[in-house]
């Protein structure tokens, strides 16, 4: 199986623009694409960022798929784990994302957040120590 058993699917307006944004902002590559051309403007695309895959599609209210622009905000967020969060946040904002908060140490991670031009929030970061923490560190365990 390619890309893991669970993959997010982002509903957007302007799907063609969204695919191009994710390529520019995060270095995404296309695994699969249907549509998104002059004959069929609506797009369904599977994208890959460093082995993590997700889907992007034009919203379809008739099928219960709404973009954050239609519902007035995102209902979830994506977490992108990278070696250099500051560089990726910079790249994303240069491509058109807006910074929600800058990269800083938070909850044992070096973490920042952007919102993409289509309304989806992306936390971009890396753990500052071995992840996940051991049960002894978190107080959990059997």
Describe this structure in words.
The chain is an alpha/beta fold. The chain has four helices and eight strands. The strands form two sheets. Strands 1-4-3-2 form a four-stranded mixed sheet, covered by helices on one side. A hairpin with a 5-residue loop joins strand 7 and strand 8. Helix 1 runs antiparallel to helix 3. The longest helix is centred in the N-terminal third of the chain and has 12 residues. It is globular and about 50 Å long. It starts with 7 loop residues before the first strand and ends with a helix.
Provide the fold topology:
Layout: E1 8-12, H1 15-26, E2 29-35, E3 43-49, E4 52-58, H2 68-71, E5 77-81, H3 85-95, E6 98-106, E7 109-115, E8 121-127, H4 135-138
Parallel strand pairs: 1-4, 5-8
Antiparallel strand pairs: 2-3, 3-4, 6-7, 7-8
Helix pairs in contact: 1-3
Quick structural overview:
Helices cover 22% and strands 38% of the residues. The protein has 142 residues and is an alpha/beta fold.
The CA-CA distance between the termini, in Å, is 32 Å
**Count of runs of 4 or more consecutive helical residues:** 4
| Mean pLDDT over the full residue set | 91
| Total beta strand runs | 8
Instruction: Describe the sheet with the most strands.
Output: 4 strands, mixed
Shape: globular
Share of helix, binned: 10-25%
Radius of gyration: 16 Å
Strand order of the largest sheet: 1-4-3-2
Strand content: 35-45%
Unreliable segments of 5+ consecutive residues: none
């Amino acid at each position: 199986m390619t890309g893991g058993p669970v993959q997010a699917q982002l509903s957007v307006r302007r799907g063609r623009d969204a695919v191009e944004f994710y390529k520019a902002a995060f270095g995404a590559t296309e695994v699969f694409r249907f549509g998104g051309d002059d004959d069929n403007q609506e797009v369904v695309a599977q994208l890959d960022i460093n082995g993590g895959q997700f889907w992007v599609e034009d919203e379809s209210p008739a099928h219960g798929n709404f973009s954050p622009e239609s519902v007035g905000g995102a209902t979830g967020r994506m977490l992108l784990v990278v070696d250099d969060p500051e560089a990726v946040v910079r790249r994303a904002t240069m491509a058109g994302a807006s910074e929600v908060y800058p990269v800083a140490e938070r909850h044992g991670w070096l973490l920042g957040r952007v919102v993409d031009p289509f309304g989806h929030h992306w936390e971009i970061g890396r753990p500052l120590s071995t992840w996940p923490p051991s049960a002894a560190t978190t107080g959990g365990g059997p």
